[in-house]
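quick q for whoever's on today - can somebody do inverse folding on this one?? i tried earlier but teh output was garbage lol. tokens:
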């Protein structure tokens, strides 16, 4: 078992205090560096798998980047102790989200006052959020739409949380526009070459060494096609969104799914 690291408080004007669960991971270590460099935020705790989370080093906000099996218990621990949470771990299905909503409804006040806020964001890259927003706007104008997501081969889940979220937004937009199922005459696909379906939207996953995080939304009509693509080449691309979430989560009590709600895009 590793030992959780608590950062000593520095004198001066009080900044919002932040702890990171999953601090030793690829994303978690990047988050720690971003928080240490950010104005108005102070990193007070680093926690990894097997650490006793305890009082979370007294943090106002906790950033959680772990794995799907561990994330719900970590977030529940934070909520029980009145800490706001910014979650980047994927794998939050409808049942897990509903259980968290119920926990938040019964939770006491946050350490900072008011209700506890939890932000679960499939993607923190501002460009990726804009890509999802643009695709949802375009979806009602096109007969066909498919999603292709491309990631490094160490990613444990497929489709990615971003792709699943995109497909749900596309499906919602199409339903509101009165569009039917996407056209597809395939009747024989024993190997699953047509990918999975999320809310009726075909989603395809690629795992390739050298990639980080990439996604295309392909939209088509007779005689034309529109491709909306976003590429993250470094994990630093996610940090502005993470910091925005940390700074604003206390202003949004309860559960919020998607950083776009903090950015005025929904």
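ok took a stab at it. sequence:
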């Amino acid at each position: 078992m590793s030992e959780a690291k608590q950062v000593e408080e520095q004198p001066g004007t009080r900044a919002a205090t932040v702890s990171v669960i999953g601090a030793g991971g690829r994303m978690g270590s990047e988050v720690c560096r971003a928080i240490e460099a950010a104005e108005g935020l102070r990193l007070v705790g680093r926690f990894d798998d097997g650490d006793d989370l305890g009082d979370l080093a007294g943090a106002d906000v906790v950033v959680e980047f772990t794995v799907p099996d561990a994330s719900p218990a970590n977030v529940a621990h934070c909520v029980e102790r009145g800490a706001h949470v910014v979650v980047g771990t994927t794998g939050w299905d409808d049942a897990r989200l509903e259980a968290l909503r119920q926990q938040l409804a019964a939770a006491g006040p946050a350490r900072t006052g008011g209700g506890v806020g939890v932000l679960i964001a499939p993607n923190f890259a501002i460009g990726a959020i804009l890509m999802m927003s643009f695709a949802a706007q375009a979806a009602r104008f096109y007969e066909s739409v498919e999603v292709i997501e491309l990631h490094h081969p160490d990613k444990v889940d497929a489709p990615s949380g971003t792709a699943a979220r995109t497909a749900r937004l596309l499906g919602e937009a199409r339903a509101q526009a009165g569009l039917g199922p996407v056209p597809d005459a395939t009747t024989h696909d024993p190997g699953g070459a047509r990918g999975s379906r999320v809310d009726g939207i075909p989603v395809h996953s690629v795992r390739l060494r050298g990639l980080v995080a990439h996604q295309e939304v392909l939209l088509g009509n007779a005689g034309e096609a529109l491709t909306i693509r976003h590429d993250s080449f470094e994990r630093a691309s996610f940090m502005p969104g993470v910091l925005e979430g940390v700074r604003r989560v206390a202003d949004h009590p309860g559960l919020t799914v998607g950083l776009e709600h903090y950015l005025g895009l929904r």
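fwiw Residues 28 and 195 are 31 Å apart (CA to CA). also Residues 5-120+236-261 form a domain with the Rossmann fold fold (CATH 3.40.50.720). so keep that in mind when u check it
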